[in-house]
Amino acid sequence: MNKDNQAIISDLIVIAKADDKVTDGEYNFILSLATKMDISEQEVKILFENPLPSKVLKTELERITHFYKLILTMNIDNEAHEKELVAVRNFGLKMGIRQGVVNQLLLRMNDYDNKIIPSGDIMKIFNTYYN
Length: 131
Fold this sequence. Notes:
By secondary structure, the chain is mostly helical.
């Protein structure tokens, strides 16, 4: 049982639960990522009941990747509720992602089908604010 991976999945669960409902799409997305991280469905169910605290992500790539997974989780049901937006913003700031980057990503996601920003565009946004 990898506590770091469980903490990452826990963050996704917090986002999925932010609007007070978890859709099948959100659950299946989280379960799919958890499976790739060698976390069983039973462990995921436990994390839904008792999420672990966030872990400190050390590299820029880890933070970018995790923040994007949070955005994807929020958008799985094609609805971005205000509570989810606040939760995603707070996670971003807590991870040390600049507010301008957070705002740009949340704004630009609406320009793409299914709100999925291509990875190259994500990197351009980050590079604009970090270079």
